[in-house]
Structures are given as C-alpha cells and as structure tokens.
Amino acid sequence: MSQSGGVLSDAVLVARKDLLLERRAKIGIGQVLPFAILVLLLFAFALDPDRGILKLATPGLFWVTVLFSAVLTLQRSFALEAEDGILEALRLSGMSPAGIYLGKVTALTIELLLLEAVLVLGVAVLYDTKFLGIPLLFAIALLATLGIAGAGAVYGALAARLRSRETLLPLLLLPLLAPVLIAATRGCEVSLEREAMSGWSWAALLGIFALVYLTLGSFLFRPLLEDA
Amino acid sequence: MSAIVHLRSAVALIGRFPALAGVNLDVHAGEILLLRGPNGAGKTTLLGVCAGLIGLSTGEAVVLGEDLTTNRRAVRRRVGLLGHDSFLYQDLSVVENLDFWSRAAAATVADGRAALDRLGVASRLFELPVHSLSAGQRRRVSFAAMICRRPELWLLDEPHAGLDSAGRDLVDGLMSEAATSGATVLFASHELDRAEHVAHRSVTISGGVILDETPPSTETRADS
Questions:
Q1: Cβ atoms of B78 and B151 closer than 8 Å
Q2: Given an 8 Å threshold on Cβ–Cβ distance, is A93 in contact with B86?
Q3: N or C: which end of chain B has fewer CB atoms below 10 A?
Q4: pLDDT average, residue stretch B57-75
C-alpha cells in the first residue's frame, strides 16, 4: 500500500491518468471506434442478403466486435506502460499493485462502455435491432465489460514487455473470455426476446466471472508487475 | 557509521549473463560516489540493484538498512532513480506528468511544481506534451520527477546526458546540495572531468566487478 492512502486512492490516480492519456492521444475515438464500426459494417455486408440470420446473430456479432476492440484497447493501454521505463517507475513509486490494477480496470471499463454505447446505436441502425429490456442489457454490458477489463488487465500486464505481445495477447485472452462472450450473448438474446426474467441468471453468471477475474487480478498483479 | 549501501560478493544475472560478478561496495551517508567504467561494465545494473529493481543471485545487499535479499520492495520509495529512460508519459504534459508522479510517491502537487522550478523548467513548457520537448528539457523534467520524491538515496545514470552547460552545472549543484543535506548519491558517468570534480570518491567497475577505488579527495570534500 502506498503512503498516500492505499489501494483506492492509487486506483483513482491511475484511472484518472489513463483517461487523461486517452483524452490526449485520442486512440479510442480515432482508431478503436472506427475499427469497431468497420467490423459491424462488414458483418452487415456479409450477412445482409439474409436479414433473418443477421437479426438472430446480432448479440453475438456485437460482443465479438466488443472483444476485438477490447484487445486493441488493452494493447494500447499496456504498451504505454512498457515505454520509457514506466513499469520501473511504477514499481519505484510505492503505489499498491492492486491499486494500479484496479485503476487500469476502471479506465478500461469506462472506455469500453462508451465504445459499446456507440456500437449499440450502430447495431440499431445497421441491423435494425430494437432494444427492449434496457435495465438487463445495461447490467449485462456493465458486468461483461468488467470481466473483459479484469481479465484483460492481467494478460495485458503479462504480455506488456514481450516482443510478440500484439499477437500473443489475443491468443491468451480470447479463450479465457469465451465464457464471458457466451454469457453476454445469451443474456442479450434473452432480453431482445422479452424474456427478461430468465436473462438475469446470465447477468448473475457474468457478475461471478467479473468477481473472480477482479479478485485474482488484484492478487496476481504484484508478481506480474515484478516479472514484467 | 553504518553504510547506506552495503554490497558483498553481489552477483546479479541479466538472463544468464552475470552483469555483476561479485561486487563489494560500501557507500556512506552524505557521500557522492562516481561509478566509472566502459559500456556494459555493470554500472546500470548496480544502480538497478540498489533501487531494488534487480534481484541478486548470490551475495549480500543492504540499502538504507533494508536487506534486499529478503525484501527488495521496501527500499524503492526511499530511492530516486534517474535512468536512460525518461520515466515520463509522452502524451501527457509536463505538469500532468509531475502531478501524477508526485502523487504516486505520496508527495504533493506543490512539491512537483517546486521541483520543476528548481530544475529551471520554464513555465511556458508546463502545458506541452513531453514528446514535444527537446532531450535536454525532458531530462530536466525527469530529474524534477525524481527529486520531488525527496529520496534518501539518489541513483543517477549519466545525469549530464543531453543537458547544456547550464543544465550540467545545475545537476552538479543539486548533487552537492543533496549530499550536504544528508542524502547519498551514486552516479554513473562517462564525463570524467566534470564528474570527478563533484564526486567525493570514485570506483571503476568493469566486467561486473570493481577494479579499483579512488580514495576520498579532501579538497573536493572541503569544497562541497
């Protein structure tokens, strides 16, 4: 724990710094968002001849797009920490590794939720999707995004200093996030079919995934930071 | 008097290469020690060991009273390291970097601004992103980020690199002030004319071992 006040204050400090970096560099708006919209468009072009399939596949296509975009966001977030000796500086700072981890997860979650909000509009326009169970969809988006960011930050730190991190990160991360993808897709399918009550069980499952990833990440980040 | 840095038969491996191959060294409080030696001699590794960033394979290392063989993390917040890297976020401005690193080290934002003033970083540069600064300006900002931590042990790797003549004089003055106020300074430099003037003592390191030691200069000590 740092002298400044502990895990929470370190997490706030790191989250604010990461969001400030995004505001300055505009990688999310300038590169990740256009990439995500492009993927949605390509799916629309590929499946447009059969609108039925496109409508059925909408939740899956949405979450696959989010996962691909999350990988790009994670790579950027941890590449910054690997440049100019920043990892050494973080180790020297005395900040709590759990605080650094939770700060990065918070910033990633906020960035991905904003991306998802824009993608929801894209899905509504391109795939002609009507959103019905809004509270459930919001809960699923929040919990799935926490799970993605929680697991992603662990693997982002693991891959940060590897020369092959661009290819290694998706290879490590995507299999781990398969349960999140499945649960988020099923939850969204259910909510779009107006069976909102049964959809909450998927939200609960996503909550458990997020809790497990965040707990493990908080403990694993110290050795990951030391070995990075 | 107990040593601030106490190394005995210190061996540190980088991969499988012994970057330090049995170093014996004592540095006392208020001392400025110059590490001399060719490229690849082990100077940077020695500074990394003292900062608690690089672990020893064998040997003893006690820095600021902390046994680094059992706990390397304990010493980190008490040292300041100026390395080859800037330790700065390139997309953040000068003050944003200083605000972040000062708060991270439990210092205040005012400490960060005072350090920038001390390093002579002009206020018109404060809002510029670090990537737009010259190498010398970046070096001054890195130095400011280090001193705002108020470290007890200064570990400087080529502190004069990239600086103009005024900047080099400023760095020399800061090292002397730090030593006068009780901090200890270890620095590696290839600019021997300048470095030997400010240092109280120097050691030559080559091949991961200390070859010779220049005894303290009473004249230099008196000057400082």
A1: yes
A2: no
A3: N
A4: 94
Question: CA B162, CA A26: separation in Å to the nearest integer?
Answer: 30
The alpha-carbon gap from A80 to the nearest alpha carbon of chain B, in Å, equals 7
Axis-axis angle for helices A196-227, A134-159 (nearest 10): 20
What residues have CB less than 8 Å from A84, skipping those under 6 apart?
B85, B86, B87, B88, B89, B90
Give residue A166's pLDDT. 75
Q: A85 and B87: CB-CB below 8 Å?
A: yes
| pLDDT attached to residue A199 | 79
Q: Cβ of B162 under 8 Å from any chain A Cβ?
A: no
pLDDT at A143: 96
ipTM of the complex: 0.89
Q: What is the pLDDT of residue B91?
A: 95
Asked if CATH classification 3.30.160.40 holds for the domain at B5-85+151-223, the reply, yes or no, is no
The pLDDT of residue A46 is: 85
Chain A touched by B51 (CB under 8 Å): yes
**CB of B3 within 8 Å of any CB in chain A?**
no
Q: Which residues of chain A have pLDDT under 50?
A: 1-4
Residue of A nearest to B128 (CA): A24
Lowest-confidence range among A176-180, B118-122, B214-218? B214-218
User: Cα separations (Å) of B118 from A176, B123, B145?
Assistant: 49, 12, 11
Give the minimum alpha-carbon distance from A139 to chain B in angstroms, rounded to a whole number: 33
Of the pLDDT bands very low, low, confident and very high (cuts 50, 70, 90), residue B141 is very high
Residue spans per domain, chain A: 7-227
For strands B32-36 and B201-206, give the pairing: parallel
CA distance B141 to B93: 10
User: Which among A29, A92, A221 is the top mutation candidate for probing chain B, defined by the most B β-carbons within 10 Å of its own β-carbon?
Assistant: A92
